[in-house]
Amino acid sequence: MRLYALAVYAFLYLPIAIIALFSFSAGRSASSMQGFSLSWYGRALNNPFVMEALWTSVKVAFLSACLATVVGTMAALALTGMKGRVRRVFDLAVQIAVMIPGIVIGIATLIALVTVFDLVNPWLEPLTGLKLSLGTGSLIGAHGLFTMSLVVLLVRGRMETLDPALIEASNDLGATPFGTFRQVTFPQILPAILAGFLLAFTFSFDDFIIAFFVAGAETTLPIYVFSSIRRGVTPEINAIGTMVMAASLIVLIGAQLMLRRSQARPRP
Amino acid sequence: MERAASMHVRPEETVAEFVGATKRYGEVLAADRIDLRIRRGEFLSFLGPSGCGKTTALRMLAGFETPTDGTVLIDGQDVSAVPAHRRPVNMVFQHYALFPHMTVEENVGYGLRQRRPRLSRREIGDKVAKALATVRLDAFGPRRIWEMSGGQQQRVALARAIVNEPKILLLDEPMAALDAKLRGEMQRELLDLQRQLGITFVLVTHDQEEALAMSDRICIMGKGRIAQIGSPQELYDRPATRYVADFVGKANILSARIVARAGGTAQAVLGNGAAVTVADAPGDARGEAEIAVRPEALSLAPSGEAPGPGVAAVAATVTHRTFLGDHTEYLLDAPGVGALQVNVPRQAERVPGGHGMGASVHVIWPEGAGLVLAAG
User: Does residue A186 carry a pLDDT above 90?
Assistant: First the structure.
C-alpha cells in the first residue's frame, strides 16, 4: 500500500522535479543533464520576449485578480443576504462555473467578445475613433470572470462561519450598518478575500487555455512558452517553467496560510 | 431578599414598557400580546423553557426584532421602529459575541468609539479602564480575546456593555456556558454590580434557580405569553396556574373538589375523600379544580400514630426515598390521590433513620398548605 502511494506521487511529481533539475543543466539539451549552471536562468531573464510576456502576464493577473476580488466579494456579500431559491440557484451557478473546463470558457468567451465587438464597433468607431479588439482588456475580463467564482466561494465560506451575534453585538453597541461592515464584517472576512485574490492571481498567471483564445495579439508567459516549444525546446524553457512554478507555489502557500489563519482562531 | 438598588427607587417609575407587543414568524406566534412595565433600577428575569418567547421579548427590547403588532417603549418613547444601534440599551450575549480580531480594550471601547460627536482618545481610555476595573480585569486590557478563560470573557462582555451606561442592561442566558461553581460566583458578582451601578437589568434564563436567586421580579413566559409576573416569593408561594407551579420549584399537583371558599381559604376534598384546607385563589368557582402543594409543606407520620383531631391526613405507602443530607425526599403512593412527593428535614424525622421503603405512613396536611390553581 505504501509502495503504491509512493508510485502515485512519483508519477505526479517526478516529471516536474526533472524539469526543475534540468533547468540547472549547462548543456543545450532540455532533456538531459550536462553539468551544473545557472546560465539558462540568466538567458531567460535577459530575453526581452520573455520579459515582455512576463510583464503582460503579471499585469493581466494583477488587474484580473483585482476585478475578481472586488466583484466576487460584493457578490458573496449579496448572496449571504439572500434567502431561499434565488440564493440556491446562484450558489449552484458559481460552483458550476468553477467546474467548467477551461477550453469551453475560452471558446465561449471568445465568441461572446467577438459578437459584442461586432455589434458595438460600428457605433463606437465613428463616434470616438476607438475600436474594441482582443488584447489585454479581453484577457483581464475573461480571467476576472472565471476567477471571480473562486473568490465568491472562498468569501461565502468565510461568511457562513461568521457568528451572526458579532454583527448584532456591533449594532447593539451603536455602530451603523456601514460601521459594522467596516469594523467587524470586513476584518473578519479579510483573510478569505486576500486568499481569494492570491488564488485568482495564480489562476490567471498560470492559465494558458483561456488566454490562448482571447489574447489576440498579446503574448502572456504561458503562451510564449507554448510557442517557443514549437521552435525547439532549450533548458531556457525549463528555467522559465521552474520560476513560474516556484512563484505560483509561494503565492498559493501564502493563500493557504491566510485561510488557515482566519480559521485557526478559537471562537470566543 | 430585599436589595438596596430597588429600595431607593420609586416603584412606579417605568423605564421600559411592552404594550400588546406581538411577534409573528409566519404561523408561529413567538410573542403574543405582551404587556409589561419594567421598573427603573429593578432586576427583572424572563423565565421559561426554550421557545416560550423570553428571548423574543428581549430581542424586541434590544431592537433586533420589530414587533409585528403593538409597541415597545423605552423612557416613554415608542422605539418599535428604532434600529438597535440607536437604542439606549446594551446586551450581554449568550456566547458573549466578543470581537475576535480586537484586544480586550478594543472590545470594551467599541461602543464608545461609535459615539458621535466623537469622544477623545483619552476619555475613551479612562472609561475603558474604569469599566475593566469594575469587572476586576484591570491588567487584561492588551490581551487577545482567545487568551481569556470563559469566565473572563464573560466579564469582558459585561464591561463592553456597561461602559456605555445603558438605560437597561440586557442579559441573554449569560451564565449558560459557565460551569456550576463559576455560575454561582458570577451571579453574586452580577448582583453586586447592579447594586453599584443602579442600572435596570433584564435577564433571560431557563434556569429557575438563577431567576429565583437574582431577580426582584420574575416574568414567567409560556407559549409566547406572560404566564405570571411577581417577586420570587410570590411566584413560589402563590403560583397562579399549574404551569407556573410546575416550573418554579417542585409541586404536587392534585385533582380535588372545592366544596367551600371563604376568607382566603378553600375547603377541598381529595380523591380519597380526605378534606383539606388550602389557600384560595381569586375566583369563586366550585367543583373540580387542581390544587398544588409544595413537598416541604407536608410532613409524614407513621401510620400507627393516629393523627390528632382536626388534622388532615392522607394514608400512603413509601415507594422511593432519596437521602439528601439535610433532608430526605419521599415518593409516596396515596390510594385515590396518586403519587406524592414529601420532603422531610432531617431533624423533623419521626422515625429514627426515616421511613423505610414500603412503610405505611400518614401524610400530614397542615391547615392552609397548598393552594387552588386557576385553570390554564
Answer: yes
Query: Three-state SS for A106?
Result: helix
Rg (CA), chain B: 25
C-alpha cell recorded at residue A88: 440556491
pLDDT in tens, B219-272: 999 999 999 999 999 999 999 899 999 889 899 999 999 888 887 888 899 988
* Closest approach of A88 to chain B, Cα-based (Å): 21
B94 contacts in chain A (CB < 8 Å): 165
Domain borders along chain B are 4-242, 250-373
Q: Among candidates A251, A61, A56, which has minimal Cα distance to A143?
A: A61
Residue A16 domain flag: no
Nearest CB to B97; choose among A169, A177, A187:
A169
- A11 part of a folded domain: no
At the topology level, CATH places domain B250-373 in OB fold (Dihydrolipoamide Acetyltransferase, E2P) (2.40.50)
- Write the CATH number for A73: 1.10.3720.10
Tell me the chain B residues in contact with residue A174 when contact means C-beta distances shorter than 8 Å: 85-86, 111, 114-115, 164
Considering the domain boundaries, does residue A238 fall inside one? Answer: yes
pLDDT digits (tens, 9 = 90+) for B2-12: 444 444 545 56
Contacting B with CB below 8 Å, chain A residues are 163, 165-166, 168-177, 179-180, 183-184, 187-188, 265-268
**Predicted confidence (pLDDT) per residue in B319-328, tens digit:** 999 999 899 9
Mutate to test the interface with A, among B99, B118, B145, B146 (most CBs of A within 10 A): B99
> Do B111 and A174 make contact, defined as CB atoms within 8 angstroms?
yes
User: Among A165, A180, A267, whose Cβ lies nearest the Cβ of B93?
Assistant: A165
What's B4-242's CATH class? alpha beta
User: How many structural domains is chain A composed of?
Assistant: 1
Q: What is the 3-state secondary structure (H, E, C) of chain B?
A: CCCHHHHCCCCCCEEEEEEEEEEEECCEEEEEEEEEEEECCCEEEEECCCCCCHHHHHHHHHCCCCCCEEEEEECCEECCCCCHHHCCEEEECCCCCCCCCCEHHHHHHHHHHCCCCCCCHHHHHHHHHHHHHHCCCHHHCCCEHHHCCHHHHHHHHHHHHHCCCCCEEEEECCCCCCCHHHHHHHHHHHHHHHHHHCCEEEEEECCHHHHHHHCCEEEEEECCEEEEEECHHHHHHCCCEHHHHHHCCCCEEEEEEEEEEECCEEEEEECCCCEEEEECCCCCCCEEEEEEECCCCCEEEECCCCCCCCCEEEEEEEEEEEECCCEEEEEEEECCCEEEEEEEEHHHCCCCCCCCCCCEEEEEECCEEEEEEECC
Q: B339: which 3 cell numbers?
A: 403519587
Q: Give the whole-number percent of chain A exceeding pLDDT 70.
A: 97
Q: Do B110 and A173 touch (CB under 8 A)?
A: yes
- Model confidence band, residue A263 (pLDDT cutoffs 50, 70, 90): low
Q: Is the ipTM of this complex over 0.90?
A: no
CB-based contact B110 A165, cutoff 8 Å: no
> Residue A20 domain-assigned?
no
Number of DSSP helices (H) and strands (E) in chain A, helices first: 12, 0
Does the distance separating the beta carbons of B91 and A169 come in below 8 Å? yes
How far is it, in rounded angstroms, from Cα A265 to Cα A10? Answer: 36
Range of the domain at A238: 56-264
- Distance in angstroms (rounded) separating the CA atoms of residues A180 and A185: 7
